[in-house]
Amino acid sequence: MTTTDAAGGIHPKSTWPGGWRERGTDSVSVVRLLGEFDQEDSANMAERVSQALAKRPHAVVLDLTEVDFVGSAALSALVDARRGVDEAGITMALVATRRVTLLPLELTGLARVFPVFRTVREAIAELGGHGSNALSA
């Protein structure tokens, strides 16, 4: 069961209080994470990345701009997700601008492992995605 907020974010009631929303172009899938990103949420993020990979995009972008907390399990899940996209031959990038997301990425060295962009628009432009639907949500 899910609810939808005023901005169109989908919030699963049972397992992920923060939520997620997927959008993108034909060549770039954008998964937008909302709220806290901790141990429980890590499995849900992995599932969303798997769903995005099933569409065989050129790239997957995780938008972390509305994440309020990043736990150590979430960082581990990012590493696991990176392995999955590497095996599929797909690029994975992050969008992060706030200290709450950037600091853990920098301290763990993940900011050097993933391309990190300031906006979804920049990530899509750099990764080769085209199309206005990726920018409308």
What structural category do the secondary elements indicate? Answer: alpha/beta
Q: Output mean pLDDT.
A: 77
- Specify the overall morphology: globular
Q: What's the β-strand tally? A: 7
Please summarize the sheet with the most strands: 5 strands, mixed
- From the alpha-carbon coordinates, what is the Rg to the nearest angstrom? 14 Å
- Please give the order of strands in the largest beta sheet: 3-4-5-6-7
| Model regions low in confidence, pLDDT < 50 over at least 5 residues | 1-24, 130-137
Percent helix, as a range, is: 40-55%
Structural summary, described in words:
The protein is of the alpha/beta class and 137 residues long. Helices cover 43% and strands 29% of the residues. It is built from six helices and seven strands; from the N terminus they run E-E-E-E-H-E-H-E-H-H-E-H-H. The chain has helices spanning 39-54, 72-88, 99-108, 110-113, 120-127, 133-136; strands spanning 2-4, 10-12, 20-24, 28-37, 59-70, 91-95, 116-117. A five-stranded mixed sheet has the order 3-4-5-6-7. The longest helix has 17 residues, at 72-88.
Task: Draw up the topology in text.
Elements: E1 2-4, E2 10-12, E3 20-24, E4 28-37, H1 39-54, E5 59-70, H2 72-88, E6 91-95, H3 99-108, H4 110-113, E7 116-117, H5 120-127, H6 133-136
Parallel strand pairs: 4-5, 5-6, 6-7
Antiparallel strand pairs: 1-2, 3-4
Helix pairs in contact: 1-2
Write a concise keyword list for the protein shown above.
137 residues; alpha/beta; 5-stranded mixed sheet; two-stranded antiparallel sheet; 6 helices; 7 strands; globular; disordered N terminus
